[in-house]
Amino acid sequence: MDVINDFLSALIPYAEWVMLFLVIGGGLYLVFYSRGIPYRYFRHAIGITAGKHDNPDDPGEVSHLQALSAAVAATVGLGNISGVAIAIYRGGPGVIFWIWLTAIIGMCIKFYSCSLAIIYRDQNAHGELQGGPMYYITKGIGQKARPLASFFCVAGLVGFLGVFTVNQFTQTFMEVVSPDNSIVHLGGTSANPQLYWKLIIGITLSIITSFVIFGGLQKIARVATAIVPFMVVLYFLAVLVVMVMNSGEILPSLKLIVTEAFNFNTAIEGGFWGIIILGVRRAVFSNESGLGSAPMYHGQSKTKEPVQEGLVAMLGPFIDTIIVCTLTAVVIILSGAYLEAESDGILMTLIAFKKSLFGFGDVLLMLIVSAFALSTLFTYSYYGVKCLSFLTNPKIGKYFNFYYVATITFAAVASVGLVINLIDLAYALMVIPNMLAVLYLAPKVNAEMKLYFKKLKNERS
Known about the structure:
By secondary structure, the protein is mainly alpha-helical. The chain has one domain (2-460): Up-down Bundle (Amino acid/polyamine transporter I), CATH 1.20.1740.10. 76% of the residues lie in helices and 1% in strands.
């Protein structure tokens, strides 16, 4: 595994500059090209999500809320708890500022990409409506761009695995249940008792995930809609308690994030640009802006209005990154846990919660992480099914779930470094075809936006 990890590490520096150019550069272009109009309709987006503009006769499989819940379930997860800790561990508190900036830009990317998912959605061989990058690439640009869509799907067969989630959940479980490694020796006959318990965790997660993902999109959406609000509220309440108990440290923590963001003398690899690139990588991992995953869910929404779905999708990065990632970062910083952790991953967040919540915070975090992990595992499989279905057909596409379940056990025993490098590289490769298509087709969204907001203005007058 060390050889594979070294190979991936050598490729990532080349891919990350492409990601920086397309996500930040391309995203800023979309912000100016849209004249910031989508941001002005934030309140309207909330109304659409709440169902105020729903029409049950519109084509599609799921409601706006279900589509957003499923997309957020895939993004609000270990990336917000463990990913933030990894970012701070590797680049210091200042990385969070660049995660914020990427998320704000990412809101506009989500607006454009998910609007395109409705404009160019298509039917598969079973007559079911489908949306996503592969469809707006082939229908929007034309069949000549099919290799670009296929490239996205091939990268997605790796990028849309739940390996990071499983890896970090396993680390959390082992740390909380047996911080002194005493429980791992209960395996008795195992030559490597720690590996033995990791395998048990991986196999258990595989079985639980199987019960949901083989039920299809509607079952995934129902489960995600039930889990996501609960886990976000529980996590918010836990963080709120920590922040109230340490209220005097909140502003200094936020100030440290801003000042360290412009630390030109930082010692991290890559210097100042290293902080920015790390922030972009972790933000894309957290909210998946520019990745092309969210359009797959939002493309299934019951609506005839592309702009409506774009506005709903825009809420995703705000919930995922501006709210949840910030809460995690503040707790880690004000608790001083970022100065104590000796390794990557969720350990830093566990230290922060244990110190801040009467010594039992790590147990509470494990319960929250369990909900985050399961919701992410349930929803991510759908992306991979769509990628394989596009490359082959819907009947074969369903077999992705077997491959997906098998990789869960692998991820439980793999090193965190290998998992991060594998996913980061796959994400960077997926960003390339998706963002090229979104930038090329942006005028189509602007035309729809002009018509929609004109109609909305007439309805209100």
